[in-house]
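hey so i finally got around to running both of the ones u sent me last week. sorry it took forever, my laptop kept dying halfway thru and i had to restart like 3 times lol. anyway pasting them below in the order u listed, first the sequence line then the structure token line for each. didnt double check formatting much so if smth looks off just lmk and ill redo it

first one:
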Amino acid sequence: MRAAVLTEFGAPLTVQEIPDPVAGGGEVVVKVLAAGIFPYAEEVFSGRRKYPLEPPVVPGTGGVGRIVSVGPDATRLRVGDLVWCDCTVRSRDDALTPDIALQGWSSRGEGGARLARHLHDGSFAELMRVPTENVHPLPREAEDDPARWSSLGMYAIPYGGLLAGRLAAGETLVVSGATGNLGSAAVAVALATGAGRVITPGRNRAALDLLADRFGPRVAPVELTGDEDADRAAVSAAAEGPIDMVIDLLPPAAPSSAVRAAAMTVREYGRVVLMGGVGMLGGADLALPYPWIMRNSVTVRGQWVCPRSANVGMIRLIASRALDLRPERVRTFSLDAVNDAVAYAAAHGGPFDRTVLTPPAGR
């Protein structure tokens, strides 16, 4: 098959002929139709984000595809099914604390690294080998636009955070980092799942206006100044009542003070979920006052990506159009134009901009 290969950090991806993947036990081979590209992919491939990828590797974080072969343990999946492939791989020998790797992207600890070496290659290819449990059937309407449906992965990540924070219908949510790709996805998912009001702090006025125009009065934009106390007061005022939950999706370059300004708006017994990249490139650690957390019974928790069930939930939300993908701005690139695609994604990382690789489907 043909695949885009990262031969070393800092080098362009090269499209090469490599052996077709072969499914082992508990695995499926999928023909890739559409694979989304994160806006920060260039930072990973350059080595600036220092992800634990081991070149040479075919990168790519899941996507939409059609099943080519299935193992004997699959009871419902069939050859020819259109499916969503989740890149979050979990070890099968520890139900309590499984090791995790993001196939073709990242991993956690030595156990995650071992997983990543087994399922080394991601979705920037014509074919991909995926664990059976990571393959989720898509509804018939996804046949019409697999590239648009590939943005499911962008929405599933913040959905995992909202599930972790137990966001309930009618609650007020603050999305820290709302003007970015993942943050704006969190806004959309929160509203689709019943949030009563979503506060969207950010510095990008155009992106804030776009969120308000798309979602109407349930969204309350707040333009940040960089003054922590003033920004905290502005976010609290925009809520017009208690803030039940804060989810942070700020990128590594953001200061920890911005996370703190948002987090400390949450009400007594409120929840704070941390999913962003703050601190990954150095800088000050997040400092939250012990007395504030303790006396207000605030829950602070981290969440890396999403549980398996979130994929099914996202498919249902999109199929029902509770989450509408039609306003997405989708730009597709062929496999041969992969480096152009990576550059385009880096330059178009705003709300609802999607960059998608569409390998040839003629195999």
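and the second one:
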Amino acid sequence: MNIKKYLEKIDYSKVPKHIAIIMDGNGRWAKAKGLPRVAGHRQGVEAIKRVSEICQELGVQYLTLFAFSTENWKRPKSEVDFLMSLPQEYLKRELNNLKKNNIKITVMGDLHSLPSKTREVVENGIEETRNNTSLNMNFALNYGGRKEIIDTCRKLAKKVADKEIDVSDITEEFFSNYLYSPHIPDPDLLVRTSGELRISNFLLWELAYSEFWFDDVLWPDFQKESLLQAVLDYQNRKRRFGKVEK
């Protein structure tokens, strides 16, 4: 089925407001082709472009991409160094297009631990696109779900210790306002590629009531049609949020 046929089936009144994606399979894609792992990561950037384009066409407001986890530092240094260079390569090449297409870049995670050059180019990308009002492309960079929750607990514990707030003030909504990206609503739909069936420490708090969709396709081969399939499947589900359907 081509893209036009998929789009004809979409109910635009039920498009997910926020889609989160675990972009998995770059290394396996490269290995299958006899290429170094970095070739898979570079090809994965092309998939990001395809997905952002179809998200804009659908009217998705937020797209969160798991770019680099706190656990990824354990990978070989050469691969980590390359992954740290990718934001520079991507933003240097795509920043003008992002601005032209009204795409806003945001980042969630521990930016302070990134190499200075990586941090500088990311912060520049955020600043250059801060007034854009179409798709908010949010990169989870040096991100870990457990770390996010611990960091939030520490912030709130300090406020309690400083008597700025009382323990009784801490509700789910209050807690959410101190996470890394409080301005972004929880994902409606989580997509994971490469056939893995786990969330890998990604958005542990935010995914509480998200719909999950798993695809066997390796991330570099992920096409616009793949995302449209996920959205169509999402639109056929009933989201009860713990309530009983009447």
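quick thing i noticed on the 2nd:
The chain has a mean pLDDT of 95.
anyway thats it, ttyl
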